[in-house]
């Protein structure tokens, strides 16, 4: 375990149940930490309604969390009024109807959020999966491959920034969180240390309706999914659709926040498209 985990105060915090894992945020008192907020849009199954699914990670340095969260809160106040409680959800903000006049507030808010993202020193990485023909088989006690491939990139981002990365998932049920936690531990402790050494060994689980980082990850995952569903990633593709052009603008902001890394002697794209049945 990393040295910050060894103090008595931190030991008491680790005894808290997973449902209260947001309390563990205060363990990261060192400037040598960053958070990776992970969320997904769709899921790679043959029955999913979308031709693509996306797993995305938003990496934010610990000292930048307050500024990012406050800017998101201020944007909500500016667009929707005092003390807004709405949760940022891609399904509400990234869809063709947002171009209609009666959804102008949602569009203005989304535009503002991407202005905020563009001005932040963050890293964004994503796995894009084409809808498979058959269910993807994952070995017992192991993370799905697209999770491990995303974590490789997040670890490389941590190495590049000389930071330990606390991985933050959108909390589900206690059983689901426990399952992901066990699979995460299996990955961290059994994978080649060169691809996991900057990952904090303990994943965190938070409620998406109160954590801006998870909400922004969901928003960007929605943009990446629509970008690929509209075939805008294909060479020479063009579209006269106002929505498609708007999605392309947002995708460009995301793409500017990612980078390639050499992992296991191979250059890897920050946003990677996994072809059908390749996993």
Rg (CA only):
19 Å
> Which overall shape is indicated by the principal axes computed on the Cα atoms?
globular
Mean pLDDT, all residues: 86
DSSP, total strands: 8
Biggest β-sheet: count, sense, barrel?
A: 6 strands, mixed
**SS-based class:** alpha/beta
List low-pLDDT spans. Answer: 1-23
Number of H- or I-type helical stretches: 8
Order of SSEs: HEEHHHEHEHEHHEEE
Straight-line N-to-C gap: 31 Å
Determine the fraction of residues in helical runs and give it as a percent range: 25-40%
- Note the beta-strand portion: 15-25%
As laid out across the biggest beta sheet, the strand order is 5-4-1-2-3-8
Walkthrough of the structure:
35% of the residues are buried. The strands form two sheets. A six-stranded mixed sheet has the order 5-4-1-2-3-8. The model is unreliable at 1-23 (pLDDT under 50). α2 (65-80) runs antiparallel to α4 (104-118) and α7 (212-229) packs across α8 (242-255). It is built from eight helices and eight strands, in the order αββαααβαβαβααβββ. It has helices spanning 8-14, 65-80, 90-93, 104-118, 145-161, 174-190, 212-229, 242-255, and strands at residues 33-41, 52-61, 123-130, 164-170, 204-206, 261-263, 266-268, 271-274. The two termini are 31 Å apart. With 279 residues, the protein is of the alpha/beta class. Helix content is 39%, strand content 17%.
